[in-house]
Amino acid sequence: MTEADLATIYKTGQPFKLCCGAVLPELEIAYETWGELNAGRDNAILIEHAFSGSAHAAAGASGRPGWWDSMIGPGKAFDTDKYFVICANVLGGCSGTTGPASTDPATGKPWGLSFPTVSIRDMIEVQRLLLSHLGISRLKCIAGGSMGGMQTLQFVGDYPGFCDSFIAIAATIKHSAQQIAFNEVGRRAIMADPRWNDGAYYDAVPPEGGLSVARMIGHITYLSEQMMQDKFGRARKGDASLLSPSFEVQHYLDHQGLKFVRRFDANTYLYITHALDNFDLAGDLSGQERSRGEGRARGQDLDQLAGVKGLVISFSSDWLYPPDQGREIVKLLSRLGASVSYTEILSDHGHDSFLTDVESQTKIIKGFLESL
Amino acid sequence: MTEADLATIYKTGQPFKLCCGAVLPELEIAYETWGELNAGRDNAILIEHAFSGSAHAAAGASGRPGWWDSMIGPGKAFDTDKYFVICANVLGGCSGTTGPASTDPATGKPWGLSFPTVSIRDMIEVQRLLLSHLGISRLKCIAGGSMGGMQTLQFVGDYPGFCDSFIAIAATIKHSAQQIAFNEVGRRAIMADPRWNDGAYYDAVPPEGGLSVARMIGHITYLSEQMMQDKFGRARKGDASLLSPSFEVQHYLDHQGLKFVRRFDANTYLYITHALDNFDLAGDLSGQERSRGEGRARGQDLDQLAGVKGLVISFSSDWLYPPDQGREIVKLLSRLGASVSYTEILSDHGHDSFLTDVESQTKIIKGFLESL
Prior knowledge:
The structure is a homodimer. Chain A is an alpha/beta fold. Chain A folds into two domains: 3-176 and 279-371, 3-Layer(aba) Sandwich (Rossmann fold), CATH 3.40.50.1820; 179-273, Rna Polymerase Sigma Factor, Chain: A (Orthogonal Bundle), CATH 1.10.1740.110. The first copy, chain A, has twelve helices and 14 strands. In chain A, helix 5 (208-222) crosses helix 7. At the A-B interface, helix 4, helix 5, helix 6, helix 7 and helix 8 of A face helix 4, helix 5, helix 6, helix 7 and helix 8 of B.
């Protein structure tokens, strides 16, 4: 059973128009929920997943651990005794929501590279459709780490009147040159694999070599230098030879690469990193700011940001989305009128802290949600 | 004309035994020299090249720029009016010295993966043979940056009585887990390319895709995050599409990858990164320390380090071989008796500073050499 099998599929029954102008003739959204929507329908929290995540954020009744189990559940940071928690797989993903591996109804074959280019804004538009389907017209909170934080920010920027609050963790308002560079190397590794075959590999062996290299690069950026050193140092396992790993860190990366290719789609890797690199909240919102009062094509008026409370969390050892970028989020959204608080958590676990640093995050997030 | 064509080839005419126990039936060493050896034969400086370098450190009469032109020449840091400067391509390399692309005399075909595993110590043993051929029994100085710094340290550790002084720049006494991890991803990128064909690609198209990805990863680590941001930021060139680069940093990496595959051998990449990851000066010298007075198999007595003057240079923005690792070099060699001074140069250029930061390095190195 895959994580997609655990999700509920909402078929919108409508075509979906993307920012790039293309139209998907049909759209399926894979989602899960935990807890109960109250009578006032005002206790919903939307959780946004990170790059390689899925709708399966918490185990719930399935018994299969979710990617944020430590944070979602009865009595946890996102307390399912109080809140109705929702998480959906992103557009372009590979865990149930329509993406490049889905079937193009026009051809009966997987989309592959004929799938339209996806943006972070498209992802949140899809989630808006899901919320509407669930009868939710206002969120208590929207929250996520890493790419989940970027979706959170896009949602709040586009629909400030829809959210009481937001929590953006280990995120940024836009990628730096180095962040684009790391993604580019991952993409190149996939495209350099002949099995990638211009994205048409769904009836053959997928480009596992390239995808696994891409994931290895990712993993280096997810861990802090210090944590890697403490965990692996120069420890060895097995004999050293030119081609087979002998350092434990080599085995670790190898394992991460292999684990990833069993559950992730190489084309999704290309589409979603492209969306990440092109995400630019500052540019986007300043465009909206300029058009204040001129009637905007999308979303709601930025003035409504004044009613939104925000929490931004960064981790001291996160060198992928470092604290500087967290402070930039605060600056931008405060300038636009939101009430944003900022916490830098002292942690050795690098970017992965948003998944592993449960205690500090729980305390801060619980306090924030209770204060609303 | 390649850089190998500019070098002089010294054929030792003898088999060469490596640390791994294997014996190369023949050995060729590609080297260049600048300046004149004086009558006392005591003005020789050996320059060690970095990972992707060659013997062509300076233009000399060739007119073709060398990789350290800014530092080697009349009146420069390594002043060829005063010193006899030598640089040789490393064992296992691909610019003239015997390596995996060389012909195995037993088969008449390229060695490929049957080439024996190379260590940093093997590299300096080869250079000792060259120095002996040139009639040099003592070096005024041995110097290098990055992998050149590691060879420098190995040379001084093994033959302290052979060197008046050493200069190790942007180097380390051993790789951290993160440094091994970056190299591992590069190796995996090459091996994932089917054209690599277990190292037997010399009569076909080489694994350019994999090698180019490996080089891209390297380039990210050579530049500081800040420098990348200042140089490229989010600037774009051309239209954005899913598969063709539109950010300038993508074009830059692409260009670096393509440039590299035209001049570098993929198997050499595997052999030399393996040597780098397995380099461990501290472990090595503490073994030698333990055997002081017990008669050592190799090299000279560590007591002679007391007569050696050292200079260690790190760069503030170098995150590949950060200043902490420079200070470790100083600690280790000072403890063993050498007189080592340390300078951290404030620079924005990351690891590449050893190639680009000419002014500060020149001042410091000139002063150091004149003080001897």
